[in-house]
Amino acid sequence: MRIIIILLFVFLINVSRAQLINNYGLKIGITNSFEKWNYKSEFPNDFETGTKTGLNVSAFAQISDLPLFAEIGYNQKGMHQRLEKTSVSDPEGTGEFINLYNRVDYLDFSLTARMSYAMPVVTPYLFAGPGMSVLIGKDISPGYDVIYNDYENVVYGLKLGIGSEIRNVLPVTFLVEARYNYDLSNSFKSELLKINNSSYELKVGIVL
Description:
Blueprint: H1 2-17, E1 21-39, E2 47-48, E3 52-63, E4 68-84, E5 97-116, E6 122-139, H2 145-148, E7 154-166, E8 173-183, E9 188-189, E10 193-207
Antiparallel strand pairs: 1-2, 1-3, 1-10, 3-4, 4-5, 5-6, 6-7, 7-8, 8-10, 9-10
């Protein structure tokens, strides 16, 4: 995590010196992610996992005066699954449940186009664009290793969201943002199973 924060500050220092950069800043928030497991078989048994809440932190920069924003960040994604315990005497289930959590950490890159409407205090906006996530770590519950050990190192997706910049209220301009991330490529793929990730993010940030 410390290395990620250092990389974000190095990114900001460099973009602040670049002539092609206009606004830049930092964001932090929470990520609610889940996975869809698609089985290939005669009797499909597709299901969506439960959501897992994680942390996200990122740095962003506007490219020149264009409505284009580049962003790099650290994002904790994953899933949770609620399973019923079984025993020899109760093979159908004991009525007791356990919660299993799997976390996958990504370095996210995105380039989004923004459509905004400027007002004196608030500037609401919509944005969309492609993204790329590079797997940098994971924390997996026992029994899931056979899946997550073969997770793709890079996945590509689409980001859609809404937000608003707020100025003249605090000494700095700050923003709030909500986004939906949908992976266009699979995180895992075998002859029998494909896994696809989706997530929702809530962020707050400052323009430096």
